[in-house]
Amino acid sequence: MTLEDHAGDVVGKARKGLGVAPAQVAKASGLSDEQYARFEEHGTYDELPDLVKIGELLQLNPEKLATIASGWYPRAADLEANKTVRQITTNEGMEVHCYLVWDATTREAALFDTGWSADPVVALLDENDLTLKRLFITHTHHDHVAALTTIRKQFPDVVLHSSSPNAPDEQRNKPGQVIELGGLQVTSRETPGHADDGVTYVVDNFPGFAPKVAMVGDAIFAGSMGGAPDHYQLAREKVQSEILRLSAETLLCPGHGPVTTVAEQLTVNPFF
């Protein structure tokens, strides 16, 4: 699995978020306009751009940006400790993850987003003899909810949780609310920016001192963040305050790219 964003993507998201013209970044980088365009689109270059000047211009950490440009990849996240967490990946022109979590004793399960297809979700539920009780939506972009209608038809009693303004009041996430899933606990943290209805769900109280798991949607990726050209500063502020202040060992489960941790992102993510 590759990173969701290469170094050029990171620079491009910052540039668009701040409203900076490509030519201005090209000048700062020491590249021609053509060379810079190739860097932003493909992450490739013949000569390394001046990442210090780019960082100064775009409010990115240049050392962390250099780490991403050098080919950094997160250490394999240890999901073995969280024995009842599974990543489900589907692909219909774009790869997207959803996640299934369950209580080992009650066999009650929760799905976080749906991905493109319900089939692998249903197969995993059947394989582990689980009952789907709750469906949490991180945001309503199509790739994350494409199978929503199918899931709700197959599991009519599932309880939906969302921060969409179109959701009925009983389905809306509420500040401070703790949702029980057997012995597990799920809390929500509003993380708009990439999407107006963006929310992060933190799953806690796993047995055996396993770390918390944060279902972050597209708010943050390993080494990057979700694009937010219209609400860029809000997106950064919400990731900083609602996600990166979780405990260092917390697993961050994004909608795209590999799983990472809070500690890793504080160390390598150029946006923070």
What's the β-strand tally? Answer: 13
> What is the residue-averaged pLDDT?
95
Q: Describe the global form.
A: elongated
**CATH C-level class of the largest domain:** Alpha Beta
Largest sheet: 6 strands, mixed
What is the straight-line distance between the termini?
A: 23 Å
Total of helices: 10
CATH architecture of the largest domain: 4-Layer Sandwich
Q: How many separate domains?
A: 2
Alpha-beta classification: alpha+beta
Tell me the fraction of residues in β-strands, as a range: 15-25%
Name of the CATH homologous superfamily of the largest domain? Ribonuclease Z/Hydroxyacylglutathione hydrolase-like
| Rg (C-alpha, Å) | 19 Å
- Unreliable stretches covering 5 or more consecutive residues: none
Could you estimate the helical fraction of the residues in percent? Answer: 25-40%
List keywords for this structure.
272 residues, alpha+beta, Metallo-beta-lactamase, Chain A, 434 Repressor (Amino-terminal Domain), 2 domains, 5-stranded mixed β-sheet, 31% helix, elongated, 6-stranded mixed β-sheet
